[in-house]
Amino acid sequence: MMPAAVPIATNEMTDHLEKVLLHETTILSRLDEMAAEITRDFAGKEFTVIAILHGSLIFMADLLRRVHLPLKIESVSIASYHGATESSGLVTFNQLHLPEVKGEHVLILDDILDSGRTLEAITKKLEEECRPASIKVCVLLDKRASRVTDIEADFVGFKIEDEFVVGYGLDYRGHYRNLPLIGTLRREYIE
Questions:
Q1: Domains in the chain, start-ordered, CATH in brackets?
Q2: Annotated catalytic sites, by residue?
């Protein structure tokens, strides 16, 4: 259930929004719950968090400050949108080497699970090349309607409808990541 509307301060970016789906207070409250779930699941295990750049940076910072366990943080740069509002179907790894996680428990963090191509690609690549002890997936948003793979997340912040969203790390052509909320853009701002 969505909470009652919370007024937001308007600025140039919020003026570009059609609607707000998730306010900052709602997101942060859910992150408290997710961090508790992750803490229970990884208690007593050494683990490495691998954040998928750039979309998961804000989510990662806010979530991991709430996880009260020792952990390591790594990142990988992967692209599948290439400036559009839908996944291109082509997953591109933008670095030469993956983090060294052989025998370690791994938690992959991503901003959104939609088509599933990115998370499927990184999971398979880690399994084949790095051989971790286990891999779990954590996403802020789950857009099930867009899924073209069988991958599912172990930890999900929010399930959303099939809408293109921005804010809280999610972007359109590199912009809007720094919005403290998640919303949809008005049509005139999408080329």
A1: 25-160 (3.40.50.2020)
A2: 114
